[in-house]
Design goal:
The chain has about 450 residues and is α/β, with parallel strands linked by helices. It has 15 helices and 20 strands. Strand 8, helix 9 and strand 9 form a beta-alpha-beta unit. The chain is globular, with a radius of gyration of 25 Å. It starts with a helix and ends with a helix.
């Protein structure tokens, strides 16, 4: 798509938005129901596309991509009327006779740049928020998952005109052209490095944005944890989508007293989830590209392999791998892994874990396995992170009642449920003043104005 064509598309969306068509509740509900109907009609195609791109099984495709979107849609349709309603607020004593309201309004045209690891869910979930809030939307899916990107273009193009929702396909050059356009909001999901580029582009046009990034998300297993259950939930969280999950446990911090007991449970959990030979399990995912595969393989020499370690270059597969005796100075601990490799470090005291995590960039997620309320309070109350779970992994992302987002280098802003509506909404403050009388002391000509103001506005 040429720059002129892209500019024309933006102007077409802006014109459509300014017509006011997208603002009424009835219109928004109708469009969201169209999306729901299209998803159900195309569910088989979505599963096939995800399998083609990432070898996702039907179970994984539905549970981590399609089902979450269904739940998001149902929640939004149920609550949208209430979210859209203007909210009356109290006024101060200095504003006698006035009424205050907060009115939700759309930003205008939203640009959504989606990643490759969950190419359907991480494209459609923010789209739901954008449409629910009354915006038009430009969706840029990832070129690394071409089957899903093509499906999104075909499916959304079949139910919406491009003046309302447009899918723009292409590589990084297309993303750069889109970022140069005068959109009204940017929603980006991806890496920290690209997030910095997106933020810089947004700053040029003073465009508000949300960044959903990543980082090294820790998983703490304390000495009192239920180890077998913890191992199963850690393996589930780490090796789903072959570890290509932004909130996957990036590394384990295990208490020294239980580390050697935890590792056999993790081996057992891997076998339970993926069988005796995961490389030949048809339901086990593959690495998205040769470039990412080679980067991950380079980490296998770090520490001591306690499970897995085998690779299949032809099919871009890496066994679920445990790296024992990992240390902070190893390459595997210098960047987000984003693959099926789990380093295991050890600690002696819970405060030691807090200090280690706080000495590094704020993670997108944190997981803690413990049965002690004091330990939970010490970690949750002392470490800054986007979100997470106690005695589980990943599941905080799957409820529309919890906003999802990062902090610091792991991102800014949040979405899911009402959080998605809030993200794509500007809350406009309106004060309506009475004309039945006027308050004289507000004016500098008032004889006792300052005295009254001091009484009303005292500290």
């Amino acid at each position: 798509m040429s720059n002129d064509t892209m500019s024309s598309l933006i102007q077409k969306q802006k014109h459509f938005y300014k017509s006011g068509i997208t603002r009424p509740l009835a219109y928004r509900l109708e469009q969201l129901k169209k999306l729901r109907d299209a998803l159900t009609a195309n569910e088989k195609r979505i599963i096939e596309a995800l399998n083609n791109d990432l070898n996702k099984s039907e179970f994984e495709a539905f549970s981590t991509e399609i089902g979450i979107v269904y739940e998001e849609l149902a929640f939004t349709l149920k609550h949208l009327r209430r979210w859209m309603a203007p909210k009356r607020v109290r006024t101060a004593l200095t504003h006698i006779g006035s009424r205050g309201r907060i009115i939700p309004e759309p930003y205008g045209t939203a640009l959504i740049i989606a990643p490759w690891n969950y190419p359907f869910q991480l494209a459609v979930s923010p789209l739901i928020g954008a449409l629910a809030a009354g915006n038009t939307a430009l969706l840029k899916p990832s070129e690394l998952t071409p089957a899903t990107s093509a499906l999104l273009a075909d499916m959304l193009g079949g139910i919406y005109g491009e003046e309302y929702v447009a899918v723009v396909q292409g590589g990084p050059d297309v993303s750069q052209e889109l970022l140069a356009q005068p959109v009204d909001y940017i929603f980006f999901t991806g890496s920290v490095n690209v997030g910095k580029i997106v933020m810089q582009a947004a700053a040029e046009g003073l465009i508000p944005l949300t960044l959903e990034l990543g980082g090294k998300s820790p998983c703490i297993v304390h000495e009192d944890a239920e180890l077998k259950l913890a191992a199963r939930r850690i393996a589930f969280g780490k090796f789903t989508n072959a570890g290509q999950t932004c909130i996957a446990p990036d590394y384990v911090l295990a208490h020294r007293s239980i580390k050697n007991k935890l590792i056999p449970h993790l081996r057992e959990a891997i076998r339970e989830l993926y069988g005796p030979d995961p490389l030949f399990n048809p339901s086990y995912g593959r690495i998205v590209s040769e470039k990412h595969f080679k980067r991950l393989v380079s980490f296998l020499g770090n520490g001591s392999i306690a499970a897995g370690g085998r690779t299949d270059p032809d099919r871009l597969r890496i066994e679920p791998t445990l790296l024992d005796q990992a240390t902070w100075d190893m390459p595997v601990m210098q960047e987000e892994i984003f693959g099926p490799i789990l380093p295991i470090l050890e600690y002696d005291d819970i405060q030691e874990t807090v200090d280690m995590i706080n000495a590094r960039p704020k993670p997108l997620a944190l997981y803690l396995f413990t049965r002690d309320a004091g330990t939970e309070k010490a970690v949750v109350g002392s470490v800054s992170y986007g979100g997470g779970c106690v005695n589980d992994t990943l599941m905080h992302i799957a409820t529309p009642y919890l906003p999802f987002g990062g902090v610091g280098e792991s991102g800014m802003g949040a979405y899911h449920g009402k959080g998605s509506f809030d993200t794509f909404t500007h809350y406009k403050s309106v004060l309506k003043q009475t004309t039945r009388f006027d308050i004289a002391f507000r004016y500098p000509s008032s004889k006792n104005g300052l005295k009254l103001l001091r009484k009303l506005m005292k500290p």
